[in-house]
């Protein structure tokens, strides 16, 4: 299919009374990419998504899709479709009618809309469940139906509001693959809101990390993880230690920390075996916590216990200075 | 075994009450409906005279028809008003505090008795009542309206006033359980407000509508006092037929009418339940 459409946020702002939920953010989504909006709860990511969808009014600024300012259009006129966190399937309609709902609202005749719905159900591999009701489906199946229902409108941008949070961990990983495959096949932009960094890293071509109503950092997934700009991003993305060094804060990847004979003295406070790695939590003399992910084989050559004194070392080049 | 026994024991109090105060009286009524009666006595018997008279009498047919007419008109009006009120409370009032507050306001009329609420219409609707006087002083009418009181209009007005809340409560209850994201999903799919109402809200509210309908229909069909007071004894329904028979000590005839009314109401409810499954609501 097509190469996707440009979506841009311009000074987008949302206020609830006096509370600022989204503070004048600017962002240009790359057409046809999988973008993850990431952040802790209350950071404004959901409000941003809902403003793009049209389910939340824009206080100031605009949402520009494919060259048009869609900020004041109703949801269905924008070219976006939303997949809801709880799926929001209509309990009184069977799967096929759920998927065909938007076509029925447009007045498409029964035969045509059922044909289209069947096509969508095939896309998400749910054809055999077309006559069931949502209550008769598992969480994963409901999600596929919700996806088919959103896609039947042929949106330019698909908005997903924490789509995997209601699934168990096993299904979550399976659906992750599925979402990514669909996005590749359809070639449209997916904007996926999540608070899980592993989900964001697994899915996102691009990450937008939000905190306190603003975009903290954005860019390719690998760039964000490898080079967090701020202490918040480093901590939120995980796998990083934030320590004070030369009078400033630096980020140090946990898997870059080694145990050696010389280096920063520290005391082991916890040891956790994680399979391929052993996670050693240590406390430096300055009282800062440093996590070291030591390869399993290396660790068991000289095992450590809580309370043991160790020396932490790393390659100078792996220290990454943070903006204060 | 013992578990079974404890289970029966726990169910026993309610079962006994229902047996003694519901099942036994109904059986008694059914038995008496086959008895015979003269002007001054009733005697045990097994005859179909009472039923034969009921089904043979034109007046009885007319009264049954009138009862259905009241039930149908009152149902339409209470449903329209009840649905609108419930819709407003459930979807337009945003805060839970206000929802509860306004809901309690709806129940205020129930702090006084049924009969008082009914009778209080009389000075309002009478020939020289507030309604007529106001309309005359506004110059809308020259003569007092005669049909305001002691008419079918008054009967239906009182019924609607008395029973609309029985429609509001179950509908409101069902509506409160509708996930608001469904409404957003409908909007996302391009449904207009009216389309959402017809395609999402009404289908999902059906069980509540049905429970309200059962309340209103059974109450209206079983009523006799409202019809008597508000029609000034000029209209009749089945309830009044029964009360008249009782007044004349014609118990077997009254019992037969009651049995027929009971069966009629049960059939009506049975038909309605064919269309809507209310089990989820109970």
Structural class designation of chain A? alpha+beta
The main sheet of chain B comes to: 2 strands, antiparallel
The CATH C-level name of the largest domain in chain A is Alpha Beta
CATH architecture descriptor text of the largest domain in chain A: 3-Layer(aba) Sandwich
Number of strands of chain A: 18
Q: Helical amount among residues of chain A, as a percent range?
A: 25-40%
Main β sheet profile of chain A: 6 strands, mixed
Q: Please count the beta strands of chain B (DSSP E, at least 2 residues each).
A: 2
SSE sequence of chain A, one letter per element = EEEHEEEHHHHEHEHEEHHEEEEEEHEE
Keywords (chain A): ATP-binding, Nucleotide-binding, Transport
InterPro entries (chain A): AAA+_ATPase, ABC_SmlMolc_Importer, ABC_transporter-like_ATP-bd, ABC_transporter-like_CS, Mo/tungstate-bd_C_term_dom, P-loop_NTPase, Transp-assoc_OB_typ2
Protein name (chain A): Fe3+/spermidine/putrescine ABC transporter ATP-binding protein
Pfam families (chain A): ABC_tran, TOBE_2
Explain the overall architecture:
The complex is a heterodimer of chains A (324) and B (282). By secondary structure, chain A is α+β, with helices and mostly antiparallel strands. Chain A has two domains: 5-226, 3-Layer(aba) Sandwich (Rossmann fold), CATH 3.40.50.300; 239-321, Nucleic acid-binding proteins (OB fold (Dihydrolipoamide Acetyltransferase, E2P), Beta Barrel), CATH 2.40.50. Chain A has helices at 45-53, 95-99, 101-106, 110-123, 139-151, 169-186, 197-203, 221-226, 231-237, 296-301, and strands spanning 7-16, 19-29, 34-38, 60-65, 68-69, 80-83, 157-161, 189-194, 206-211, 214-220, 240-245, 248-253, 258-260, 264-273, 277-284, 289-295, 309-313, 320-321. Chain B has one domain (47-280): MetI-like fold (Orthogonal Bundle). Chain B has helices at residues 2-32, 49-56, 58-92, 96-107, 114-119, 121-125, 130-138, 152-176, 180-188, 193-222, 225-231, 238-247, 251-275; strands at 36-37, 42-43. A two-stranded antiparallel sheet of chain B has the order 1-2. The longest helix of chain B is centred in the first third of the chain and has 35 residues, at 58-92. The chains are: A alpha+beta (324), B mainly alpha (282). The A-B interface holds A 53-55, 74-77, 81-82, 84-86, 88-92, 101-102, 104-106, 149-150, 153 and B 179, 181-182, 184-192, 195, 199-200, 203-204. Chain A: Keywords: ATP-binding, Nucleotide-binding, Transport.
